[in-house]
Amino acid sequence: MTVQRRIPLAKALSDVDTRQREISEYIDRNKDRFVEKLRILCQQPSVSAQNLGMTGAAQLVERFLKETGFTTESFSPTHGPPIIFGELLSKHGSKTLLVYNHYDVQPVEPVDLWTHPPFSAAVDDGRIYARGASDNKGNIVSRLMAIEAFQKVRGDVPCNIKWVVEGEEEIGSPHFAEFIAKYKGRLTGESAIWEFGGLDYDDRPLVTLGLKGMLYVEFKVQTALKDSHSARAAVVENPAWRLVRMLDTIQDEDGRILIEGWYDDVKPFTAEELEVIRSMPLEEHSIRDELGIKSFLYGLTGFEFKKAFYGSPTANIAGIWSGYTGPGHKTVLPSVARAKMDFRLVPDQDPARLAGKLKQHLARHGFEDIEVSLQAENPAARTPISSPIAKIAARAGKEVFHKEPVTLVTSAASGPMHYFTNTLRLPTVAIGCNHPRSNTHAPDENQRIDVFVQGAKWIAKVIEDFAKSSE
Question: Of 269, 301, 268, 314, nearest to 409 (Cα)?
């Protein structure tokens, strides 16, 4: 008869604590080396909007993944920079976790507002200053730190890890669908971790369960073959005025989008989601202080503020330009006027269908001559609050940061998460090493080094607990 020796519960828990402590201690011992690794990645430009440094950045990311033990493939879309796919198999774990990041960054302009050169990756007062330090290169390297810790301390990762790192997220991921179509059969697993996440203004860990969708368009109005003297404004139409009048038909003074049928498919929050939103800490004062504003649109505050921020479709003018914008004056009648708009969408709005409604709206109001260029179309994505990965991420965040985590039903931002939640059917959470004063997309973007390190421990704990979970 075989006698099974029972391990006392206290000793088993002690062994678990020891193993987790070893991972944490490895991360602490090696943080300086990974800070330097992040600086190297940030010093490599990768501005997708300007096609600047993209191939070099992709090669650097692939090298980093290989150095951490991943087998990698570089997929080149028909147009656009490479997408890196890495795979690291566990020797003992059977579950699979997918990870998504992007190596492209926003343009650095206006350069004169940066304290440090945007690709210098200067270290100052516990932060790394660089375009991409927070969005999204900090998260890439922080995750590499967590995975290397498992490899070096235990010689194995607790579960299989599949990692996708693309180069066009900042311009709407226009070619990511090609990758998904080709690799869909290989992108199997139980759950996924999205590219961003971190702490709120009070350093509480945030677990985000979705993203708004996006329809990004550019309008072009042309009324003449060339610019001319502004004396002709009495008899020649100014395209800027025509553009402004068209834009005025899109949204009313109360923020309601006036395009016919725009709200037809909006999926309301569930009662459970509304309760989570109601219980979320309120950060109105922190956002007001950061932006230097006295109040929010339409007097929004409290629960209505949170509900609008996370659940309302928006129509935002991202840029508008025409004629002469340099110093001094120039009396010119421009021939062309342009504007860019991003429309944030919620479940179940279809960006392709809404693009059609937008064009119908322009024709209905006499603006059928205005050229509309579609630049990004991403549906919204949302993971159920009850999903196991959401609970795992929250518990792990509390253990690492020693603060009660905040669950966000969705982010007000957008991205191609829908390919993971809607196409691959993977519950997906956004967690990471960001902080709210990172100046993402703005001058002096930065990454707090302490959050960079703790974020790696958070990811490591999630990987560990995910691999052990029976759900």
Answer: 269
Adjacent-strand bridge partners of 47: 52, 105
SS3 372: strand
Q: How far is residue 468 from each of residues 101, 143, 389, measured CA to CA in Å?
A: 24, 19, 12
- CA 128 vs CA 29, 56, 104, 295, 444: distances in Å: 19, 21, 17, 31, 9
Burial class (CB in 10 A: 0-12, 13-18, 19+), 425: exposed
Alpha-carbon distances of 97 from 27, 88, 207, 467, rounded to whole Å: 21, 10, 17, 9
pLDDT score recorded for residue 9 = 43
Residue 353 binned pLDDT confidence (cut-offs 50, 70, 90): very high
Mean of pLDDT values over 25-40: 98
Q: What is the pLDDT of residue 13?
A: 47
For each of the domains in the chain, give its residue range(s) and CATH number, in order of start.
11-209+383-468 (3.40.630.10), 213-378 (3.30.70.360)
SS3 (DSSP) at 433: coil
Structure tokens at 32: 């300086």
Confidence of residue 286 (pLDDT cuts 50, 70, 90): confident
Instruction: State the first-to-last Cα distance of the chain, in angstroms, to the nearest integer.
Output: 33
- Are 246 and 252 spatial neighbours (Cβ–Cβ below 8 Å)? no
Mean pLDDT of 69-82: 96
3-state helix, strand, coil in the chain (%, to 5): 40, 25, 40
